[in-house]
Amino acid sequence: MMFIFIAGVILGAVPQYLKLILLADAEGISMSSLALMNVSNLTATLNIFILHFEQIKQCVRGAAGFTADNCQASLLTFYYTLVYTLLWFPLYPLAAHFCGDRKTEVCGHVASGRRHAWNGFFAHLLPCFILAAPVLRMVFGGTCFGLESYAMLLGVMNAVLEATRYLPQVYASFYGEGSGALSYLRLMLSVGGGVGATVQKAIMHEDISTWFPPLVGHGLEIIIIVINLYHDLSGTRGEEGEGGDAEGDRSDVEEGAPLLGGRAEKGEARGRAGGGGGGSDSEASDWLDEMPRDAGFVEQSEYVCDQMCTNPKFLNALLKYM
């Protein structure tokens, strides 16, 4: 059972890491959302660790009644949360590495998107260390007594962050040019699994603090999917971005554009993903537009296989909706 839960967490992260690495561009991903997600995941992990610390000590010591099977079953939530936190934390520095060089203004400071992203990385590490400090003292002190109230505070912080951490991504998606490096598959897996779990908690009349914050968070994920699909399918944002004048680009710097990653390097990233050239979105997605809609599954599969072998921009169009 534990293996199934952990494998599910890893499966949900793979599409996002894969799309970001293949595109080599962080356009479309909100760095603020990634930072809030890291802090939220850390508070959840610390909360569970404090509440189960005495049990974990007995399991490590092999005390009577604390068998391996019993320990693994009762600590499943802790394992799941810890793996989730460790798995998603490296996504921020990876996305920061692929952010663009276009200068933007953030809090009165003008710098490249990559510089802002790395500043944000080190800035959000500070509260992470502060939140973890009492727990480190608990580990070396050997007891969790006296930290029950702190554990409850961490739980409240996690609930607030879980409900609001996707708000910057909603903003970035609304003012962006489509999904970019943000993975549809990752969002759909998160919504599919998360909404079912939260609804089940509500039906079982669990405390509202256990199901309402994640329900709000998954609702924001659905909004992000809808916004990105609208931009990707209509192409309106892409047309505005490609047809806009230089004055609009300058106003972004002067007034402070949202930090979306390597937006200025859009043409280069598309060229890398498509295997050459830097063609437009419409050229890259022609094979999708021309797919025979009324044909059967076999005919459509043959068409996709043919495009995979003959169309040099196959990967670019496929990654767009990954």
| Rg from Cα | 22 Å
Provide the low-confidence segments as ranges: 237-284
The order of strands across the largest sheet is 1-2
> What's the tally of helices?
18
- Which outline best applies? globular
User: Given the helix and strand composition, which structural class is it?
Assistant: mainly alpha
Task: Report the sheet with the most strands, covering strand number, pairing sense and barrel closure.
Answer: 2 strands, antiparallel
Order of helices and strands: HHHHHHEEHHHHHHHHHHHH
Domain unit count: 2
Overall pLDDT, averaged? 78
Give the amount of beta strand, in percent.
Answer: under 5%
Give the helix level as a range of percent: over 70%
Distance between the termini: 28 Å
Characterization of this structure:
This protein has helices spanning 2-23, 31-51, 53-61, 68-74, 76-88, 91-97, 113-141, 148-164, 167-174, 184-203, 208-234, 236-243, 246-255, 266-274, 281-284, 286-289, 297-310, 314-320, and strands at 103-106, 109-112. It has 322 residues and is mainly α. It has a two-stranded antiparallel ribbon with strand order 1-2. The chain is built from 18 helices and 2 strands. The chain is globular and about 65 Å long. It is 73% helix and 2% strand.
Task: Please name the defining characteristics of this protein.
322 residues; two-stranded antiparallel ribbon
How would you concisely characterize the structure shown here?
By secondary structure, the chain is mostly helical.
Topology, pairings included?
Blueprint: H1 2-23, H2 31-51, H3 53-61, H4 68-74, H5 76-88, H6 91-97, E1 103-106, E2 109-112, H7 113-141, H8 148-164, H9 167-174, H10 184-203, H11 208-234, H12 236-243, H13 246-255, H14 266-274, H15 281-284, H16 286-289, H17 297-310, H18 314-320
Antiparallel strand pairs: 1-2
Helix pairs in contact: 1-5, 1-10, 2-5, 2-7, 2-8, 6-7, 8-11, 9-11, 10-11, 14-18
